[in-house]
Specification:
Radius of gyration: 20 Å
Strand content: 15-25%
Shape: globular
CATH architecture: 3-Layer(aba) Sandwich
CATH topology: NADH Oxidase
Helix content: 25-40%
CATH superfamily: NADH Oxidase
Number of helices: 8
Distance between the termini: 39 Å
Order of helices and strands: HHEHHHEEEHEHEH
Number of domains: 1
Largest sheet: 4 strands, antiparallel
Number of strands: 6
Length: about 230
């Protein structure tokens, strides 16, 4: 065994009957099919422990070389959420008015989005997901060493998928928001140089009367190929 090799242990796995496997798959599909990107949130608080369990689920995602190159910053302080909203809207307004191409604006038009981002202050919690571009290892003599990370974006993308699924299963609504550029998030939240913002997820319950675009998803035949 190499010096840094993980010890191997017996796999713990919930072997299901074919009927139970089909039932679970169908129930999960029905639940996730109700998921929508929500932009209008109620002030209703999130139950204790739900966010922690959802983020623990996200942190259980597979990652390149098991380096787990992610940080999940949960923001609930109203003043800090307001500061994030102000910075986000400044960037988004610049994007909508000057940075985005006509083609991009045309693609967004059916969704009814604009530079205003009330979800930053309306949602009871904001999760800002950061990717760790490289690791930082403390050396015995007191210095630090950069550690190369592999498949960072792929790993963090999978973790965000786990996170959205976990929050949806807990009955919470989310919005996957990727303001561009996102450098202000690291600055406002005081994150280290090796972290780069990946996505912002407002989390909470939909506001009474919340509305969403009447859109659909591609059929299974359009996205699945058998060979």
């Amino acid at each position: 065994m190499a010096a840094n090799e993980y010890p191997f242990v017996p796999l713990r796995w919930p072997y299901l009957s074919p009927a139970d496997s089909r039932e679970r798959a169908k129930a999960f599909l029905e639940s996730m099919a109700l998921r929508r990107s929500v932009r209008h949130f109620a002030s209703r608080p999130i139950p204790n422990g739900v966010m922690e369990d959802a983020i623990a689920c996200a942190a259980a995602a597979p990652s390149g070389a098991n380096q787990q190159p992610w940080t999940f910053v949960v923001v609930t302080d109203p003043a800090l959420k307001a500061k994030l909203r102000e910075a986000a809207e400044a960037e988004e307004r610049e994007s909508y008015e000057r940075r985005m191409s006509e083609e991009w604006l045309e693609a967004l038009a059916p969704l009814g989005t604009d530079w205003q981002k009330p979800h930053f202050t309306d949602a009871p919690a904001i999760i800002v997901v950061f990717e760790q571009v490289y690791g930082v290892k403390q050396l015995p003599e007191g210095g630090v060493k950069k550690v190369k990370h592999y498949y960072v974006q792929e790993s963090v993308g999978i973790a965000v998928g786990f996170l959205i699924a976990a929050l949806t299963q807990a009955g919470l609504a989310t919005l996957t928001h990727t303001p561009s550029p996102m450098g202000f998030l690291r600055e406002v939240l005081g994150r280290p140089e090796n972290e780069r913002a990946f996505a912002v997820l407002p989390v909470g319950y939909p506001a009474p009367g919340a509305r969403v675009p009447d859109l659909g998803k591609k059929s299974l035949d359009e996205v699945m190929v058998r060979r």
